[in-house]
Design goal:
By secondary structure, the protein is of the alpha/beta class. The protein has one domain: Rossmann fold (3-Layer(aba) Sandwich), CATH 3.40.50. It is built from eleven helices and six strands. The strands form two sheets. Strands 1-6-5-2 form a four-stranded parallel β-sheet, with helices on both faces. It has a two-stranded antiparallel ribbon with strand order 3-4. About 40% of the residues are buried.
């Protein structure tokens, strides 16, 4: 517990200090408080990281074929661009959505530890996957800002942090894109989406968000990030309120795809 507490404090410092200074401090901490892989308990892969190479190799990275719009992967041989039935039916508000890995195996365990176990230090590892996803799929897009899916104040008090905000901050540091901390707010408390189907999820989040920086977002290209995308209902609703305020485009990136 003591190790986690120290790492969480330095996670905040990392976002404000230079990379070289952080690595020096991290190396010093490793001498007295050796890091363990969050997936298997082994030795992490590199300085400041909390996952080992074996656990990273266990991740199922998303690659073709997948929906050209929402990025949902499909099994089998597909040799042409296609849109999934959900995208053809709903016409998403975002330009496209992409995820780094599938929400299964070790990554599912790690995201649960990050999100529910308050292991905020894992934002470094998950942020690295997320930034790599952005660079791989959106290399030709110049983003004006990074937005993230907000928590309702009630949920924020219960959890004490927003995992999507931590991911946005890490991506911002890696890719040099400013974070839009007040771009979207959640104005209605919603029940968990876990046991809802696609249509129920869409209704559950309808009207739950509000854009708060219309003068700034108008005419801008926004990168919207979150930890996991399942049906896309939540990120699509966030994209809708941004587009309604005049955003030029919204691209979605998540660590994992359910």
């Amino acid at each position: 517990m003591r190790i986690k507490s120290i790492e969480i404090r330095f996670q905040g410092l990392m976002l404000r200090m230079g990379r070289s200074i952080f690595e020096l401090v991290s190396a010093g901490l490793d001498i007295f408080y050796p890091r363990q892989c969050a997936g298997c308990g082994g030795i992490p892969s590199g300085s400041g990281m909390h996952l080992c190479w074996d656990c990273l190799a266990d991740s199922v990275f998303i690659k073709d074929p997948f929906c050209s719009c929402c990025g949902d992967p499909v099994a089998g041989a597909v040799y042409h661009a296609f849109e999934c039935s959900w995208c053809r039916r709903t016409h998403p508000e975002f330009v496209m959505a992409r995820s780094a890995v599938r929400y299964r195996g070790t990554i599912k365990k790690v995201i649960a530890a990050f999100k529910y176990g308050k292991q905020c230090n894992l934002a470094v590892d998950l942020g690295s996957l997320l930034a790599g996803c952005v660079q791989a799929h959106y290399s030709g897009v110049v983003f004006d800002g990074v937005a993230y899916v907000p928590l309702h104040p009630r949920k924020a008090r219960e959890r004490s942090f927003n995992q999507a905000r931590l991911l946005a901050a890490d991506v911002s540091r890696r890719l040099n894109i400013p974070v839009l901390h007040s771009c979207i707010k959640r104005v209605r408390f919603t029940s968990t989406q876990t046991r809802l189907n696609s249509e129920e999820r869409k209704k559950n989040v309808r009207g739950a968000f509000e854009a708060t920086m219309p003068d700034w977002t108008c005419g801008r290209r926004i990168l919207l990030v979150d930890d996991v995308m399942t049906t896309g209902a939540t990120v699509n609703e966030c994209a809708r309120v941004l587009m309604d305020t005049g955003a030029l485009s919204v691209h979605v990136a998540t660590v994992a795809r359910g």
